[in-house]
Amino acid sequence: MRMASAVSALGVVIAAWVAAWAIPAHAGGNAGDAGRALPARVIDVHLHGYEADAVNEAGPYYGIDAATRDAPTPANGAAHRQATLAAMERNHIVLGIVSASDGSDDLIVARQWAGKPGPRILTGVTERPMAHGVAPERLAALFDDGTYFLLGEVGLQYRGATLDEERFEPYLAMAEKKGIPVAVHTGLGPPEMARTVAPEFRIEAGNPIPLEKVLIRHPDLKIWAMHSGFPWDAEMFAIMQQFTKIYVDISPLPWMMSQEIVDRRLKWLLDWGMGKRIMFGTDQMYWPQAIDAAVSAIENSTVLTREQKDDIFYNNAVRFFGADRLNLPD
Ligand SMILES: [Zn+2]
Fold first, then answer.
1. Which of 199, 266, 307, 327 is buried most deeply by CB count within 10 Å?
2. Could you tell me the CA-to-CA distances from 150 to 138, 176, 288 in Å, in that order?
3. What's the pTM value of the predicted model, to 2 decimals?
4. Which residues are within 5 Å of ligand 1 (an ion), measured at CB?
């Protein structure tokens, strides 16, 4: 994380939720190997980008895969983008959904990533305009002209806020009316957030339960819980059980934790009957090589059938977003 510069920017880190110190011994993985098993096609619903000239001051890699851990970290936002696109291509990721992170400007990142050669990219706008009270009509115009595809990553936990607050209602009403997907960060963040870069960060604000009010008020809102709410498992299940249209993404577990933990998490979701509502997401942050490890962890999972893997990698996202809206390559 760019701890120092993040303070000087907006002081908000939109990132993953797992404590870097909580990493167990590595349990496998062959990312980067020639000839490793790969799915036919993948949609990655959770990628991050940075402004092209933003200097990368990432700390140590959060992941545990030896082959990817020691890979060089891109020097700046432009190199990060190139490395991410290359990782997408070698992992058969035909479509990626990208939002800004760590103080990079939403609009600049969206314009630098979209409409270029390579894998198809759709871009999101973070919670920043909502948190700053930007007029909803102004934001709406950027959806109407195709600049943004989704409202997300909505990282309100880093601001100690939750999506059910009244001040966010106009944005959610807009998203519901226009069919804009909303991706809300749930769960946790990197260690020591409140005492370092995000003083307003609160554990409680990662609880998925406030989504209940949102989903009652906006029955047609297309929403997914990023990071599948971990460690609020009972609460995440309750929301998914009651609101059958909400999906989750599995990031950043597949590259950050051991295969055993990834499999346990997947099995938990599958045992509760949620296999059709899990989407593949990487949350690669500063480490494009995480994409290799994440794809391999799902592909190599021993608890998933081929059909379940393909659902997570691709089919569930197509169903959630709608094939017509994704305009997928043939
Ligand atoms: Zn997140």
1. 266
2. 15, 11, 22
3. 0.90
4. 185, 226
